[in-house]
Amino acid sequence: MADLNGEKTTKGKQGANLLAGGDSISGLIIETPEASGLLHSVVKEIYNPKDAEALGIDTAFDTANDIVAYRHITEFYRMADNGTKLFIMLVPQDTGLVNIFADSDTAPSRKLAIKAKGEIRQLAAAVNPTSAGVILNGLTTDCYNGIPLAQGFGLWAYEKHMPQQVLLEGREYSGPAASVANLRDIPDLSATKVSVCIGQDWNYAESRTEALNKKFADVGTLLGTVAKSKVNQNAGEHESFDLTDATKDIWMEPALSNHVLNDDQESDLQTLEDKGYIFGLEYVGMAGTRWNNDHVCAPIIIDAEGNMNEHTISLGRTVDKAVRLLRTAYLPKVKTNQPVDTETGLLPSAVVTYFDGIGNTVLGDMQNREEISKGVANTDPNSDLLIEKVLKIDYRIQPRGTIGFIDGTINIKKSIN
């Protein structure tokens, strides 16, 4: 007897996701009045601007309340694409970055991270103050004083196994660049998890009638760019991340959050780059606008043993991803029973090789995905599983390089043969 169907193909079982997704999952805290569908301090998960509109956050909401909120969400999705998971939380106006990232279990940043169950990889905070800020070292006092607290949150999140980068809206930048704070050299602070965005789309800012909104910074655009990029990818990469959309008149004229066009303060831009600020930039010979770089508020440090700190967003995201994946791989092995050497009570070579293999597989997958150049796991054979019950493993990763500048020389030759 023949089966009249002729052929049958059944779906096989699907194992773990080897693409290690989730890198784009983001968080956004915005100072606003309560929306019709979203009260203060409540966390909502959205996937496109329509979801935000359903919560009452739309252009009319921004206009009626003299704020910038919907803009950050639409810009996030313009860069990151619809379908990207974004956790949003609204907090009252004038909460301030200092309070958003306060060293408290009730701080909005911590509540958002916990409600998102550690899924957030990058978090942006946007402010809508009701009055102009007091300027300190070129930024508002709230932003400048918020940097160490945001770093504290970043360290707390890391310790809670949900590492993430923090992007702050640097409203009301006040130059000249020579007198503003060097974010790469803040006294007694190395904020490797924190970045400050002072770039703005001048045309959008100019379209706002409220003076305060003319000095906003487009942190939503930056958040979307970071979410779109691979963990090892600079958000300012020229080939991949053009901020300009001429058909929608978006990012046609880059400016800083002092609401002055880049063209009118061009001599300050290199100094701001050197001092670690993030802003949109046009390059001669290339249409469009790109982020100048993926700075964090920390110096570049290399110690005597060749260890390098996370001095860019991409380096921080790369390490964060490695930490998350290694934890996922090793966590099931906690409290498992392992053999020990009958003479020393320490680890036999087979156990060392086994645990090395777990880490090397994780890091090898990252290398295959071109997220790192190389990674190695080294299990300490002297780990004591009898008394201390601690398995010690040393992980080393070598990042991929980034072309920050091309230094060329050209000559006219009589012959090139």
How does this model look, in words?
- The chain has two domains: 26-291; 337-399, no CATH class.
- 28% of the residues lie in helices and 16% in strands.
- The chain has eleven helices and 15 strands.
- It has helices at residues 49-54, 59-65, 70-80, 97-100, 108-115, 141-159, 202-207, 219-228, 266-274, 313-330, 349-368, and strands at 26-31, 43-46, 86-91, 122-126, 135-136, 139-140, 165-169, 194-197, 199-201, 254-256, 260-261, 280-283, 286-291, 372-379, 393-399.
- A six-stranded mixed sheet has the order 2-3-1-4-7-8, with helices on both faces. A three-stranded antiparallel sheet has the order 9-10-11. The chain has a two-stranded antiparallel ribbon with strand order 5-6.
- Strand 10 and strand 11 (260-261) form a beta hairpin.
- 40% of the residues are buried.
Which outline best applies?
Answer: globular
What is the N-to-C succession of helices and strands? EEHHHEHHEEEHEEEHHEEHEEHHEE
Low-pLDDT sequence parts: 6-20
The strand count comes to 15
Rg over CA atoms, rounded to whole Å, is: 24 Å
- Helical amount: 25-40%
Going across the biggest sheet, name each strand in turn.
2-3-1-4-7-8
Sheet-strand content, in percent, reads 15-25%
Major sheet attributes: 6 strands, mixed
- Name the structural class: alpha/beta
Q: End-to-end span in angstroms?
A: 77 Å
DSSP summary: helix tally: 11
Number of domains: 2
Q: Overall pLDDT, averaged?
A: 92
Q: Regarding quaternary structure, how should these chains be classified?
A: single chain
